[in-house]
Design a protein that fits this description.
With 322 residues, the protein is mainly α. The chain is built from 17 helices and two strands. It has three domains: 84 residues, no CATH class; 127 residues, Flagellar motor switch protein FliG, alpha-alpha superhelical domain (Annexin V, domain 1, Orthogonal Bundle); 82 residues, Orthogonal Bundle (Annexin V, domain 1). Helix 3 crosses helix 4, helix 7 packs across helix 10 and helix 8 runs antiparallel to helix 10. The protein starts with 5 loop residues before the first helix and ends in a 16-residue tail after the last helix.
Length: 322
Amino acid sequence: MVLIGDDAASAIYRSLPDKEVQVLTREIAELDYVSPELAAHVLQEYNRLTLTQEYVAQGGLEYANQLLVKAFGDDVARSLLDQVERTQEAQAGNLDSLQKADPQHLAKFLDREHPQTIALIVAHLEAKQASSLLRLLPDNQRADIVRRLAEMRQFSPEMAQRISVVLNKKLESLGQHRQRGYAGVKAVAELLNRLEPQEGKVILEKIESDDPTLAVSIRNLMYAFEDLLTAPDASIRELLAQVDKKTLALALKNASDELKEHMFRCMSSRAVEMLKEDMDVLGPVRSREVGRSQQDIVGVARKLEQEGKIVLKPEQEDEIVV
C-alpha cells in the first residue's frame, strides 16, 4: 500500500471492509524503513502471486503450472503454486461466510451431516439465521443439535479447518479460519427466543428430559415478552418510542393484565386510548401473528439493551449512584 502511492492506496481502501482497513492502517503506522531492494522484491513477489491466481482461475493448476514454469522456472513455479494453494485452503477454513447462505439451501446441504457438525455451523450464524435454519431441520434432530450447541464452549481452528474444507467442496469459498470462543447457553437462549413459542417449548422439553440442569440454564437466559414486566418504567418508555404501534397492539392482544397495565402506565392517557382502540379494531387474530409481534418487540428490546439504552433485567444488588 505504501509503495503504490496515495491515490492507488485510497482506491483500494474504499473497497475493503472496515475491519481490514483498521488492521492495514495499524500495520502501515508501525512500518519501519523499507530498503529499495526489499521494496522491489515485495512488489515482484506480489505481481507473481497475482499472475498465479489469474492463471489458476483461467485454467486450473496444471495450466497455471505450465505458464509459470515457462516464465520463472520449476522452482519458482512450484513455490508460487504452493503459496496459492495454501491461501485457498485457508480461505476454506472460515465458516463465517455461511452468514450469506440461504437457510433453505443450508438445510438441504446439512441433511446428512452429523449433529455436531450442524451445531458448529449454527454456532457461526447470527441468531435470526440460525433460528430460520433450525426450523427447516427435521424435528427429531432439533433438540440434539440445540443441546450440543449449548454444551459447546470453544472449538479449535484445526477442527473448524477440517470441517470447512469438506464443506467448501460442496458450497463455494468459505474464507479464513481462526479460533473462536462461543458462549453456548447464551447463544441458544437468543436462538430459541427467535423461534415460535411452541417450537421453542418442544425443543426445551426434549432437552429437559435428557439434561434438566442444562434446560434450566437455557430458560434462565431466555427473554419472553411477558418478561418486560421486570423492565423499569424508563426502559419501557424508551422501548415504546421505538416500536410500531400496530405491532404493539397485536402483541398485547393475549398479554397478561399486569403487563398491559405496566405498558399503559408508561404512556400518556391519550396514547393509551388510541392503543386500546387499535386493539379493539383488530378483532380475532391468529396466535402465530401475535407471537411474531411479541418476538419483534423483544428483538427491539434486546437491541436497545445491547446499545446500553435500556435495562431489561435490573440486578437486585445494583446500587443507584446519584
